[in-house]
Specification:
globular, 17 helices, single chain, mainly alpha, 424 residues
């Protein structure tokens, strides 16, 4: 008994020492970035006064100085500590990657080594955010704060993704944000561990799991991968809508949306990993928040799906997207989210969600411009795109109801119990 107590005590001391080292590392990172911001102001010169947006180096420098002061004063009381954490969580990830990009570009130009510094920038998410994640994100106590922090971290590269010019493959990797999606897996593992939970790639199938139900669901999902894609092309007949698909319209090398097969593959992989890891995190925290609500399953799926839809409003930042297009896309994301949330809670396999989402986007991204030539049966509606969303979402919601009701509900409840089991 005494021996185990001493071992636990030593473990706590070791953990505290590690935490202190990470805090010092974050403070060092803050100070270094203050110098980066000053360098950026000097480098930009008079140009900084021409573009007063949130990424103006003067604003970034001011924010970093405030963050550093608050960080040093954390020990003065819980109010200052909470304000410091809030500033760090919202401000630091965006500032760090923005300034790191500036440093990589400036050094690459000065040393005539653009490829090396472009590579360094592309892989930056794997290491640049770790201190702030360990110090601040892991220590968020409020479940609502955790939900918001997940949303914030997923928007980082949408707002701070810069072109890489030195190498085409590297530029494809960068613009696809696949490295960020890998970081997000690490982020999920770290924050869930910090919050007292596990990150499971897949739960062990429980006794209530029904293969006779699940296999038809998988076949439905595989069918919907192609049904959704070819419905996008506005089919000319009912046959073309349901099964007479022209697979010659699928060619990632001639994609309507991207310039190469590599871009198609990387962007589909990024969407599959990022959005499903986001779903895992969001669903777990919502389940914790709603654990005493008798409708927790349906509410969790619905709320996570609505948040998934809102996540797609970042598409408004694209110059070729308008509000109507984004609203319709977001509605489609809600329908897909309901199915994927139900699939995850029934199977407990996040890797399966990632695979399905990857295939779903891969097929859509592989459509060629020829597939959109001419008019089809959906043109009878005022908005063919909205009709598409209504049809696919209706099918997804119908199958989702089957997955989480009846005898399947016990399987879902068993998985929920394991997902939100808190480590003491």
């Amino acid at each position: 008994m005494l021996r185990s107590t001493l071992q636990a005590y030593r473990g706590e001391i070791k953990m505290d020492n590690t935490q202190q080292k990470i805090k010092k590392l974050l403070l060092f990172q803050l100070i270094i970035n203050i110098f980066f911001a000053i360098w950026c102001i000097y480098y930009e010169g008079k140009n900084i006064f021409k573009n007063w947006n949130i990424w103006n180096p003067v604003f970034i420098l001011s924010g970093l100085v405030i963050a550093a002061i608050l960080f040093i004063l954390r020990s003065r009381g819980p109010i200052l500590a909470n304000i410091s954490k809030l500033v760090d969580i919202i401000f630091l990830p965006f500032s760090f990657i923005y300034l790191f990009n500036f440093v990589c570009v400036a050094l690459g130009d000065y040393l005539n080594s653009n490829f090396f510094f472009d590579l360094l920038y592309v892989i930056a998410p794997l290491f640049i955010f770790i201190p702030v994640v360990k110090v601040d994100y892991e220590n968020i106590q409020s479940n609502l704060g955790r939900i918001l922090s997940i949303q914030i971290i997923c928007e980082i590269f949408v707002l701070t993704n810069y072109k890489v010019d030195s190498n085409k493959i590297l530029d494809n990797v960068n613009r696809s944000q696949i490295i960020f999606s890998i970081f997000l897996v690490l982020f999920a593992y770290l924050v869930l561990k910090g919050w007292g939970y596990h990150f499971y790639l897949g739960l062990k199938l429980n006794n209530q799991f029904q293969w006779k139900v699940f296999i038809p669901i998988l076949l439905f999902g595989f069918y919907m991968v192609f049904f959704n894609a070819f419905l996008t092309t506005n089919p000319k007949s009912i046959g073309e809508l349901i099964w007479k698909w022209n697979f010659e319209w699928l060619n990632p090398a001639e994609s309507q949306y991207f310039g190469s097969s590599l871009e198609v593959f990387l962007n589909a992989a990024d969407a599959g990993i990022t959005e499903e890891v986001w779903r895992y995190l969001t669903i777990v925290i919502l389940l914790v928040m709603l654990k005493n609500n008798k409708h927790k399953i349906s509410l969790t799926i619905l709320i996570s799906s609505l948040l998934f839809g809102l996540l797609h409003f970042n598409q408004l930042l694209s110059p070729d997207r308008n509000l109507t297009d984004v609203i319709i896309q977001s509605l489609g994301a809600v329908g897909l989210g309901i199915f994927l949330g139900s699939l995850f809670l029934y199977s407990g396999q996040i890797w399966l969600n990632v695979l399905f989402h990857f295939l779903f986007d891969l097929v859509v991204f592989s459509l060629t411009p020829l597939s959109f030539v001419g008019s089809g049966i959906l043109t009878i509606f005022n908005s063919p795109a909205l009709a598409h969303v209504i049809i696919t979402s209706g099918l997804f919601i119908l199958v989702s109801v089957i997955l989480i009701t009846g005898k399947r509900r016990k399987c879902v409840e068993n998985n929920i119990e394991r997902l939100i089991m808190h480590e003491n």
